[in-house]
Every structure is written in C-alpha cells, then in structure tokens.
Amino acid sequence: MSRTVRFAARLAGGIALAAVLAGPLASGASAQTNLSNAQILQGLTMTTADEPTITAQILKQMAQTAVANNIALPLDKSEIAKQLDQLAQITVQIQFSLNSAIIKPESYATIGSIADALHHPILWGYRFLVVGNTDTTGNRKDNLELSQRRADAVMEALVTLYKVDPARLEAVGLGQEALQTPNDPTNPVNRRVQIFNIGKE
Fold first, then answer.
1. Tens digit of pLDDT for each residue in 131-170?
2. What domains, with CATH codes, occur in the chain?
3. Which of 25, 58, 67, 139 could form a disulfide linkage to 37, CB 3.0–4.6 angstroms apart?
4. Distance between CA atoms of 118 and 111, rounded to whole angstroms?
5. What is the pTM of this model?
C-alpha cells in the first residue's frame, strides 16, 4: 500500500474518530484559535508509517548550527520545516508578554484544549514535541533563546496545570529557523507554537 493511500485512509479514519470523540473532549474552554477540540485531536492522530525519526535533540542541533554558522534561511521551506511537515501536528497562537515567556491569561484556554487531546485514550502512549517559533524581528540568536523559553513555558503549563505526564513531552525552541511564511518573514503568523506527534513511547 502506498504512503499516499495509507495517509488518506488514516486521515479519513481520524476525521471520523474525531467527530465521534468531540463531545468527551469538550472542557468548557473556548479555544483561542480557530481549532476546535476535535480538530486538535484529529491533527495529532494523523500519523503515517513513513514519518521520519525526529527528536528534540536533533531539532535543537539543526537550529543551533543554522544560527552559529549564520546559514541563510531559504525562501521556500527550511530543511527543519520540511522535516516537521511530515509529522502529525497542530499549530496554535499562544500569546506571551512582550519579549518574555510569560503566557497571557487568554491563552490558557488553548493550552487546556491541547491537554484535553493529550489525555484522550486515542493518544495515550504517544510522545509530543512542543515547539516554539518566532518571526525574524530582532536578533536571530535571541529569537532562538526566547522561543526555547516559550516552548518550556507551554510544556510547564501542560504538566503543572493540566497534569500531562512530562515523560511524554519535550520542548524545543526553533526561533526563526522554521518560518511558516518564508516570503514574509516578519509576519506575526510566524510567532506560533506547534505540537508534533513523534510516535509511541
């Protein structure tokens, strides 16, 4: 069976399952993004048999090397972004205080919705990356460090407030090394948090 067929079958199954499970996921918190609880669950369950082996350490090393060597970001997707695109994922906008890792109160509803999905039985046993990203405003090295602190803050909220097992999570800051809109690098949409399913524990 081809990868495309396997992916389409998994996608169809994920959509149907997410629709069935949407009720139990509801936590009374309205999502800050346009993603519903069912969409979050669906996005994190669309895994494929051919996805690459990606770890937090590999991503950190790729980002640090790009920054240290001042490797220019390509006008299309960076190599880091291309690797991540192959994983089951969701992208959310978490609001932080200016130049800090302090999560604004209005973003906790979104984090709670993510936690609901991670606690769902369909995702038990899976591990996830919490990835922080910035746009290109500011210093490249500082952006990398800020995004790591913000990824750490989201992971800490998932663990301490919503009781997600810390063994299932790793936080990675990629700074501006995996832009969502490479042709518009200062666009605020690049300032985002992504959750990636990296497979079974």
1. 999 999 999 999 999 999 999 999 999 999 999 999 999 9
2. 2-200 (3.30.1330.60)
3. 25
4. 11
5. 0.78
